[in-house]
Amino acid sequence: MSNALHPENPPAGTATGGVPSVPAHPSAVRYHAVGKAEEVLRFEEIALPALGEGDAVLVLETAVIHPSDLGMIAGTYGRLRELPAVAGREGVGRVAAVGAGVSNVKPGDRVRMPEDAGVWREALVAPAADLRVVPADLPATQAAMAFINPPTALLLLQEFVALRAGDWLVQNAANSAVGECVIQLAKARGVRTANLVRSVEKHGARLKALGADIVVADDKDAAKTIAGEIAALGGKAPRLALNSIGGMSAITLTRALGQDGVLVTFGGMTGDAIRFPTREFIFKNITYRGFWMDRWARTSPPAAVDAAFAQIYAHLRDGSLTVAVDSVFPLAKFTEAIARAGAYGRDGKVLLNGPAA
Fold first, then answer.
1. CA 194 to CA 233: how far, in whole Å?
2. N or C: which end of the chain has fewer CB within 10 A?
3. 8 Å CB contact between 216 and 225
């Protein structure tokens, strides 16, 4: 951790906005073959192409490390990149310069780094038409994490069941980044949450502080415990269940659901197949659905995508949503950052700072 930066204390001399300088010899975290990140990733110099008409030069501000990044590097993710590839899917940068004919962005603007090009890089020349401006008044750490986990949580809340204030949902892996976003966004809507975690002792107080109504251990008695606690609070059985684990935990969620409930699976942390109890599946008329944020973002109308991001920006701005940050590393220290991202006891996301931070 010696090379990590405290999230709230960037090093002296870093920029807080404005037009960034483009590194003379920009480098990127790149892989030429799929495999374990620690074995295939290299910090390599990559020459920038000339700035053309309609282009913009971007300099990385802050990027995020996700499990899906490592899955893409390993060749196990649902969508892979042509090799050699630059790693990373999420982050923000600053516009350093624009080519002729560009009017949608200007030097100094903060933008989302283009995902398909790979984000873990110091600089990039990209078509300006593909760029989305990101509010400059948000902290860089929060802005960098605005495009995957928070909108996933938002869409899970609003795309499958028309939840009303006072309704209940139940979710597993509640201490994950998406789980914590679900708790906060649900609270803002008046929706109540029952949350499954491996350790209530470790995670309960933090999740309650975020707005969780119930936090219980994800064990064989969890469904019965949830039913009792919801009843004690005068509530009705959950209408929505959110699953990112699978296996026995999905069975627990199904048993916790009420009549005509919907279970949405958006991840499979254990790798176990989704299982369901036949009795509840039949007699409660439970519906199982799947959700992949990547597909939604690529197939939805641009206006719908922009509207989702606008909601997230508003929540980040008014403080009703905060995504936890464990630590921030310089991009060149990506190896240490990845090790920290996989460490037990991590509290939040691990980020990578670029030259524009």
1. 12
2. N
3. yes
Gap between the terminal Cα atoms of the chain: 19
Q: Among 92-96, 180-184, 277-281, where is mean pLDDT lowest?
A: 277-281
For 232-274, the pLDDT digits (tens) are: 999 999 999 999 998 889 999 999 999 999 999 998 766 667 7
Measure the CA–CA gap between 16 and 18, rounded to whole angstroms.
7
**CB burial class (10 A; 0-12, 13-18, 19+) of residue 48?**
middle
pTM above 0.85, yes or no: yes
Identify the active-site residue in 77, 288, 313, 344. 77
67, 77 Cβ separation under 8 angstroms: no
* CA pair distance 22, 26, nearest whole angstrom: 8
Strands 85-86 and 27-31, by their bridges, are antiparallel
How far is 107 from 97, CA to CA, in rounded Å? 5
CB 227 within 8 A of CB 237: yes
The C-alpha R_g of the chain, in whole angstroms, comes to 21
| Amino acid present at 54 | G
Give the torsion through C-alpha atoms of 13, 89, 197, 185, to 10 deg.
80
Q: Angle of helix 247-256 relative to helix 222-232, nearest 10 degrees?
A: 30
Domains annotated for the chain, with CATH where assigned, are: 27-145+323-353 (3.90.180.10), 149-294 (3.40.50.720)
Annotated catalytic residue 77? yes
Are the C-beta atoms of residues 130 and 96 closer than 8 Å to each other?
no
Kindly state the greatest CA–CA separation across the chain. 66
